[in-house]
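Action item from last week, closing it out:
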Amino acid sequence: MTQQLLFLLNHLWQSTLVAGVAWLACRTMLRTNSPRVRFGVWLAASLKFLIPFAAFVDAGHLLGARPLLTPAQSQQVFDIVGGGSSALAVAPFHVASAPQPAAIGADSLLVAFATLWAMGTVVVFFRWFRSWRTIHRAARNAVPAGSFRGVPVLNSRDLRDERIEPGVFGLWRQSILIPEGMQASLSEPQFQAVLTHEWNHVQRRDNLTAALQMTAEAIFWFYPVVWMIGRRLIEERELACDQAVLEQARSEDYAEGILNVCKLYSTSPLSCVAGITGADLKARIQSILRNESPRELGQARRWALGAALLVAVAGPTVVGFLTAPAAFAQQANSFVGLATSAVKKFEVATVKVNDQTNPAWHLGPPGRGSISIQNRPLRGIIVQSFRTQGNMVFGGPDWIRTTNYDIVGKGPDPNMTNPEVWEMMRSLLIERFHLKYHIEDREMPVFALTVLPGGHKLKLGENGRCAEDIKAGKNCGDIIVPPFGAAMYNMPIGALITSIGVRAGRPIVDKTGLTGKYDVNVTWLPDGAKLEDLDLQNIPAEYRPQDMTVFEALEKQAGLKLEAQKAAMPVLVIDSVSQPEPN
């Protein structure tokens, strides 16, 4: 939720900056130019509220994506073997030290604000819907009265009864809607001038642009700048239509026609039903009677407007293009949760019981469509192959925890992604170990991983340790599992959850909403341990523990929070499994 709030605040100040530039331009260098030009400037400011700069940056990322690369990501694992330190290296942390969720926290306030925001939007739309229903009924009951320059003209008794001014109805198939009997109240030149005004609204598609502005007003109903832009758009569109009418009608006839309409009818309740009495009426009449021609937009001003548009649109797009990360063939996230598909198979695979002559062990990750596993119990292999957590696998005989295996598998294509290799591992488990299982939901204690209200402290992978490799088009990504912490470089948040989950004692549910690849290094002191009792000589300084719990470490070092909760989780239940036949 915090990320969404920061995105909103960034979007608002960026859009406000654009609106400020538009206001300054219209009040200074464009003040004496055509209202059509000023309308275009204000329309651009309006659209900016609907289109964040981030959309242009993302478009640049798509344009700048580099060709697929296939080298395998590396994984490093630190482990302490022997001496009694090994147990400490994987010492679990306990729920007793986990912070309990507050009754009312920042997230609750954000949810309340979001609810209030949505309610305000609904209220605004509902008010407009009531007005639209009135106009729609008037148009439905109206009687055809010919056409004006190819645009249908409709006589409406409902508009007469509601005393609503003439206007343009429709976004795509437009018609001019006039109150019944209005023609009798105006002279023929006045009536023709009014119809010309409405015809110009049709040609300009003012109803459509007004609908876009109304959408921005409904979404950002709480922001005065958006409503100010709406008023400026109405003012400039009316002045633009006035200017067009004066090219074909006498200013006196036109001004008298507007005044007579104002005497008889009220302003249209919807800006997307463009009428004739909008904006500052006194200023409009004075401008009409003066009948002054606006200054032409000179070449210098054309260049200035073009440059501003280029900076606003092309600028973020170019930034996105230049910062686009390489597109890797292995970009599919291997840490997305329980996976069960088992269609793909290894081309060649060997399985044998480990002879226990070497205590070293190795479990993945896949590389170039292949995998190598050494000295690991079958249960751990099942956990990794199904992309789940150890405390979410149940059942099975004791030997799957005590008998260690060596497995080597080679896929048919070296360009296969990590998820595809894990799928081939699941096929191997089913075929060679005759694994049978089912998935069910169980309510259990979990840890929920969330982002603190102040935001996370993770560094984007493209700006971290792998920055140079990424810019050079190389694959780069590490998972580090020190004895007293967890670290990753240019990896998704699921990699951190997997590393922590080994020692959590309960499933970890990702509620961060983070979708990118990040760098993070979190170190902590296992429960009950003391720094002075640990042998840290063989551990690099950056991975040595800090004197804090894992919960404190995540908050202070990563801006993340683990909260103890209960949730229904999909778990894998082993129904049966057999020891494999010799190769």
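Closing note: Residues 118 and 219 are 8 Å apart (CA to CA).
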